[in-house]
Design goal:
8-stranded mixed β-sheet, 7-stranded mixed β-sheet, single chain, Aminopeptidase, Rossmann fold, about 900 residues
């Protein structure tokens, strides 16, 4: 989504208030007064044909009357009735206004008539390139550092470091009132209203470049343009936190579903998976929003969940431990070295473990020493200090000691000074020093776990999975054939969804290398018994019906049939029970498959559902008949990498069962992770799939097998194929950019997009470059390629950045010989280009090949311009740019040449 011209809204020099008024408590009156009272330093133009002067400013009959000899109005604040707004927007466009905030209400929030007015506004705005609109139905916005209050709010946002974005205008008013009381400030405060144009992703991208914004608080009721949101959020959270409160956590109802998965994955699950993958931290209580924002912006993210607790009272320490374990944190196990140090520093009666009880008579130095030891322990990720006022307690001096200890460590230190007036001076001292302090141990622990969550989510930001792994062969034509045959076989009704039979579903799984238990269809008892005899007993028999989702619920499953007699009885019983419970169902007979026996297997449930916002979502949980009862599930966006698949499994309560448990051998975890990845590739490759479930997926120490499967697809998506990956919220690895190339020297090169796994080869490439090559490419010097540096270049968001590497096989090893990098702006209009060729590969024509290929990709991505910064002494690259039609801007005295090309 474009961020261009948002500066016209947030940093205007000329503002018009259209519909300004002196009518008491009208939106037009409040907006004009707020703009003036806020101290806006630019020009203010009230617009209303009924007045000649308002609030000491000349009032204009229309925008056309305003003298624009010094340039047009930057921002128009519209306060007129809804029906007039389309015409006002047209006037804005004709007058050259590029920023609009619509405070008026009465649009789609009131019904179909309002929807029509919104549609008219959208159509009008499209006729004026670059016109940006916030709203309608917006409370407005404030930019305190620019003294801009373009709202009709009763309270004013003061300066701070948090950008607040809300879909609820009423909540904005409440938050402003609360923030004024608590002394909380903002870098920007935005009510986005109905998001006719400017949306959440636009604002995240814009605030990412804002010098005053250290974090974003986001209140959302729904998200549009999921891929743009994910891309913007992931870019922002690489360096700064986003804290999200998502309203509407529970679906009022579940629509009828074709699979178990369809009934089990709701919109809430999709939001949770997406926000986690975006690196955002979600809070469940509004009261946590600002505490969390301040904490995450100021504190180092912990390496893990291991917390040490230092206290002078046993009871509050136990309270903190309970809160920590309840939130799945870990009580740090102190090292022997730390225990020895504490033994030497503390009285003999100290707790000799964690929590570290320094006893009720502890002075400030005893607290400080204990905190310092805990922070130095490699087993500790953070420290919580809980002070309870005793007769001997010195709250202020103890705060100073804790502050000094915290300064010497990068690990987070949180505090709770329990009590009232006696501890107030200590609390104030901690706040002034930037050490987080909370009223209760539970609140402090909750904040620590938000830090842990932020650290975990950030660590996953760079896990961009491949769409298809190397060496993975897929017969996509065969999959499409299955879909097309199923569509042709349907009765021609108007159903949106069709369900593949168990046999066809398993055929699709097998095509993706997912092991399945062979299943055979039998239309009558004789055929079923013959199949059972041939595959060998024991067998499983299940009802074969496209109308029945939950086979067990209708008595349609019989397990462990040990001989022909048992199979015959099972057939009769399945038919009788199914016909009794579902007389309306179409029954095609039964399916027969071998019974997977043995005590070592663990049953899992794997499924996916395609939703309207974030597209396909994957689910993994404990399987079998207790799936819905135990509710042990986790969710993720496809496709999966190894790390993402493993994290899904680790987050299950059943995770310990997959390992060695009570004498049972562990499952083949590597194989299970691979199967989960393959399932995710199937979902990613097939936008036709609306729902999929595999229940159970049996994992044993030696194999992983899908015992049952069901896939529901959308008929229209088969008849009218969608663009690849349009149903995914995150763009997967672009295999389409892989191509072999032979250099002029005869050396074979593979050009492809970079991937996270390339980090070691990228670091090796950097290590082989001279200081001159490093300076020419990066415009600054560094000693070595750290993981943090490599992460910036090897982990790409393929929606907005693509690095093309040249991979060669040299001396029997694959190496990177060079990299061409394209980074697009948020508008997707202009891309910055840079190139690096390893010293050993210079002079082979590789630089020219990389440049030409990157230019070709830029055209495919429909970017409009390419720009590059080049050192003046880099004659070889400058000549390459010039020969390809770039204009070279050689600024006198500058140490850089700007190369530009319009595509």
């Amino acid at each position: 989504m474009p961020t261009r011209n948002l500066a016209k809204i947030f940093r205007p020099k000329k503002v018009a208030v259209i519909g300004a008024s002196n009518r008491d408590e009208s939106v037009g009156q409040r907006a004009l007064r707020n703009l003036i009272a806020g101290g806006f330093a630019g020009d203010i133009y009230p617009v209303n044909a009924n007045y000649s002067e308002l609030e000491g400013h000349r009032c204009y009959r229309s925008l056309a009357e305003i003298d624009v000899s010094g340039g047009p109005v930057d921002l128009a604040i519209i306060c007129t009735p809804a029906a007039s707004v389309p015409n006002v927007v047209r006037q804005c466009g004709e007058s050259g206004v590029l920023g609009v905030v619509i405070l008026s209400a009465g649009f789609r929030e009131v019904g179909s008539q309002g929807e029509q007015i919104e549609a008219e506004i959208r159509k009008t705005a499209k006729g004026f390139e670059g016109l940006r609109i916030i709203g309608p139905n917006s409370l407005g916005l404030m930019s305190p550092y620019h003294q801009l209050n373009a709202s009709f709010a009763a309270d004013v946002a003061t300066r701070g470091r948090v950008a607040f974005i809300s879909q609820s205008g009423a909540l904005c008013a409440s938050v402003l009132d609360w923030a004024a009381r608590e002394g909380i400030g903002f870098s920007h405060f935005v009510s986005i209203g109905n998001m006719l144009d400017v949306g959440v992703a636009d604002l995240i991208d814009y605030f990412a470049q804002d010098r005053w914004t250290d974090s974003i608080i986001l209140y959302v009721e729904s998200i549009a343009h999921a891929r743009q949101f994910m891309s913007a959020a992931r870019a922002f959270t690489r360096n700064k936190p986003i804290i999200v409160y998502k309203a509407g956590r529970f679906d009022e109802s579940q629509k009828a579903a074709a699979t178990h998965t369809g009934a089990m994955i709701g919109s809430e699950n999709a939001y949770e998976a997406a926000l986690t993958r975006a690196g955002a931290v979600r809070v469940l209580e509004l009261a946590d929003l600002f505490d969390c924002a301040e904490l995450l912006a100021r504190q180092e993210a912990p390496a893990g969940p291991r917390l040490a607790i230092v206290t002078n009272a046993g009871g509050p320490g136990v309270m903190a431990v309970d809160a920590l374990l309840q939130r799945n944190g870990s009580l740090a196990e102190l090292s022997d070295t730390s225990l020895e140090k504490l033994d030497a520093l503390l009285p003999p009666a100290w707790s000799h473990g964690n929590p570290i009880d320094v006893l009720s008579d502890a002075d400030a130095s005893r607290f400080g020493d204990a905190v310092a030891v805990a922070l130095a322990d490699k087993n500790v990720d953070g420290v919580l200090v809980v002070l309870s006022p005793q007769i001997w307690t010195l709250p202020l001096e103890t705060a100073d000691a804790v502050i000094e200890a915290a300064k010497r460590s990068r690990k987070p230190v949180l505090t709770t000074w329990l009590g009232g007036l006696r501890v107030q001076t200590g609390i104030e001292q901690l706040r002034q020093a930037g050490v987080p302090t909370y009223a209760t141990p539970e609140k402090a622990v909750a904040s620590f776990m938000y830090l842990v969550k932020y650290a975990r989510n950030r660590s996953m930001l760079y896990e961009t999975p491949r769409s298809v792994p190397i060496g993975f062969q897929i017969d996509r034509d065969h999959l499409q054939t299955i879909f097309r045959e199923r569509v042709a076989a349907c009765d021609g009704d108007s159903q949106d969804y069709e369900t593949l039979s168990e046999l066809d579903s398993k055929t699709m799984l097998a095509a993706y290398g997912i092991p399945v238990c062979e299943t055979y269809a039998a239309s009558d008892q004789a055929a079923a018994l013959q199949i059972a005899d041939e595959i060998g007993y024991p067998v499983v028999m299940k009802i074969h019906s496209p109308s029945i989702v939950h086979k067990s619920d209708v008595g349609g499953v019989a397990l462990n049939l040990i001989d022909r007699s048992a199979a015959a009885k099972a057939y009769d019983q399945i038919m009788r029970q199914t016909q009794q419970k579902r007389p309306d169902a179409r029954i095609d007979g039964v399916t027969v498959q071998r019974m997977m026996v043995g005590p070592l297997g663990r049953e899992l449930f794997v499924g996916s559902k395609q939703g309207p916002v974030f597209g396909s979502v994957l689910m993994v949980g404990l399987g079998g008949t207790a799936t819905e009862l135990l509710w042990d599930r986790t969710f993720e966006l496809p496709p999966l990498s190894e790390r993402l698949a493993r994290r899904m499994l680790e987050s299950l309560r059943a995770w310990p069962l997959l390992g060695a448990y009570r004498g049972q051998a562990p499952v083949d975890l590597d194989r299970l992770i691979e199967v989960l990845m393959r399932i995710s590739y199937l979902v990613a490759d097939a936008p036709e799939i609306m729902e999929l479930d595999i229940n159970p997926l049996l994992a044993t120490p030696t194999e992983v097998v899908a015992l049952d499967a069901r896939i529901a697809f959308q008929r229209d998506a088969v008849l009218h194929p969608r663009s690849p990956y349009s149903h995914l919220a995150i763009c997967p690895y672009p295999t389409q950019f892989t191509r072999p190339l032979k250099l002029s020297s005869g050396v074979g090169v593979l050009l492809r997009a970079i991937q996270p796994e390339d980090e070691p080869m990228w670091c090796e490439l950097i290590a082989g470059c001279s200081a001159e090559s490093i300076q020419m490419r990066f415009r600054y010097m560094f000693r070595s390629a750290t993981h943090e540096l490599a992460s910036r270049y090897c982990f790409n968001d393929y929606d907005r950045e693509i690095a093309i590497v040249a991979e060669v096989n040299h001396d029997g090893r694959n190496k990177l010989a060079g990299v061409g990098r394209l980074v697009a702006d948020a508008d997707h209009h202009e891309a910055e280009f840079a190139i690096l060729v390893g010293d050993a590969w210079q002079g082979h024509g590789l630089g020219a090949a990389l440049m030409d290929y990157c230019l070709q990709i830029s055209k495919q991505m429909k970017w409009k311009r390419i720009v590059a910064e080049v050192a003046p002494q880099n004659r070889r690259i400058l000549d390459m740019f010039a020969s390809r039609g770039f204009t070279l801007d050689r600024r006198i005295g500058a140490d850089v040449v700007i190369a530009k090309k319009v595509l």
